[in-house]
Amino acid sequence: MRPLPELLDRAAALHGHLCPGQALGVRMAVVGCTELGIEDPETAKRLVVYVEIDRCASDAIQAATGCQLGRRTLKHVDYGKMAATFLDTKTGRAVRVVALEEARDRAWAYAPEAQDKDEAQRLAYARMPQQELFKVREVSLRPPAEDLPGHPRGRVLCDTCGEGINDGREVLRDGRLLCRACAFGAYYTPRIEP
Ligand SMILES: [Zn+2]
Ligand SMILES: [Zn+2]
Q1: Pairing status of strand 134-139 against strand 83-88
Q2: What is the b/e burial string over 77-90, where b = at least 16 CB atoms within 10 angstroms of the residue's CB?
Q3: Ligand 2 centroid to 175 CA: how many Å?
């Protein structure tokens, strides 16, 4: 991995500011890649990361690993947890890294010079030993082929709305192929045009 200050710079540039989440996310990425033995995730092209929250740290993980939603190498699993799983698609090994709740309270001990809590956490998360920041566990994870990077595996049209569906996300119901919005209800409500 590149040196921490360089990764923090990258994270701040992508995310828009240097916050505690950037320090935490960058550290998570370093731990995940190191545990998997991936020295440079961007050139190795074998890392897929599952982030469990859509907040600051997820941008830092993207910046530090080069994994991106649009490349299918960054997945958002909506658990609302400060955690991420790093999968080596070449070896099949995966490690889940969870930020420890106690780390918040210990921040001041590692950054006594900080002016406020935000700065204390930002500095401390870059300094604290790994064991005080994270729980790291090897996990099993076998993503289906249609979740992985590469060309789309198939494309069909929804029998109800006619919109195209990539990568096997369609649902077969009573002999009809439906998109998930038509099958389960959408996250939006269509408006009737005047
Ligand atoms: Zn932030
Ligand atoms: Zn549909």
Answers
A1: unpaired
A2: eeeeebbbbbbbbe
A3: 14
Query: In this model, does residue 24 exceed pLDDT 90?
Result: yes
Tens-digit pLDDT profile for residues 88-110: 999 999 999 999 999 999 999 99
Beta-sheet pairing, 74-76 with 47-51: parallel
- What spacing in Å lies between the alpha carbon of 182 and ligand 1's midpoint? 35
Would you say 165 and 155 are in contact if contact means Cβ atoms under 8 Å apart? yes
Angle at 100 between CA 106 and CA 34, to 5 degrees: 110
Q: Residue 19: nearest ligand to its CA?
A: 1
How many whole angstroms separate alpha carbon 120 and alpha carbon 125? Answer: 8
Are the CB atoms for 170 and 178 separated by under 8 Å? yes
CA distance 125 to 72: 28
Residue 95 CB burial class (10 angstroms; 0-12, 13-18, ≥19): buried
Please identify every residue whose CB atom is under 5 Å from ligand 2, which is an ion.
158, 160-161, 179, 182
Ligand nearest to the CA of 122: 1
How does the average pLDDT of the chain come out, rounded?
Answer: 96
Q: What number of residues does the chain have?
A: 194
